[in-house]
Write a structure and sequence with these properties.
alpha/beta
Length: about 210
């Protein structure tokens, strides 16, 4: 499944691997990879693989789940579609409470004590997903964990999840994607090492120079 999803993401450009021409994230970090999982929604075949994959992850890892809650905005559609597949209610958590109406931050019905799984498209440092977990816990939900399409598997993200006592399960990850990209001729095999060096320490940009030596 991990390799199948990685190939699917690469095939539609939802993930682009470009070590020799790094992308710049909003944080200023230089990255050999850029991920835009919104593109999965525009490809019916890939969308089907992703949404059934997420539904199956929830069934396997969190069989007690009663509600899916998407992160705003990227996780909303995935929570809705996976929830429809599973016959479960869904909602989503805003980045902040509305300043009008009921001033909701959680959209959708959520009862105290309900068992919730958070649906996210991408995990890097895990900050945004853990903010959602915090809001849900404050509302009285029992957060079972997170499912996501892709994870960079960064040390900072793993530590943050561990400290918050939250498990994340992703359909695929950076390690698998780099391997698949090399196997399919999208990058030379030696670039796998550069990509994984970025994963281990995104603040260390020495991997960029290694490709030019």
């Amino acid at each position: 499944m991990e390799e199948k999803i990685a190939r699917a993401l690469l095939s539609i450009g939802a993930v682009v691997v470009r070590p020799d021409e790094p992308f710049t994230w909003a944080s200023g970090i230089k990255s050999p990879i850029y991920c835009d999982n919104r593109l999965t929604l525009t490809s019916p075949q890939v969308r089907t693989e992703v949404e059934y994959g997420l539904a199956n992850l929830v069934r396997e890892k969190f069989p007690e789940c009663e509600v899916l809650m998407g992160t705003s905005t990227a996780g909303i559609a995935h929570a809705a579609i996976a929830g429809h597949i599973m016959g479960l209610p869904m909602g989503y958590v805003r980045s902040g409470a509305k300043d009008h109406g009921k001033k909701n931050q959680i959209e959708g019905r959520l009862e105290k004590g309900e068992k919730v799984v958070v649906v996210e498209d991408l995990i890097s440092t895990a900050g945004s997903a853990l903010e959602v977990v915090s809001v849900l816990r404050e509302a009285g939900a029992e957060v079972l964990g997170i499912v996501s399409i892709f994870t960079y598997n960064m040390k900072k993200g793993r530590i943050a999840l561990e400290m918050a006592h939250v498990s994340n399960y992703s359909l695929t990850n950076l390690d698998v994607l780099a391997k698949v990209a090399a196997e399919d001729g999208m990058i030379p095999e030696q670039d796998i090492k550069r990509i994984l060096k970025f994963r281990d320490d995104p603040s260390d940009e020495s991997w960029i120079k290694e490709g030019k030596e």
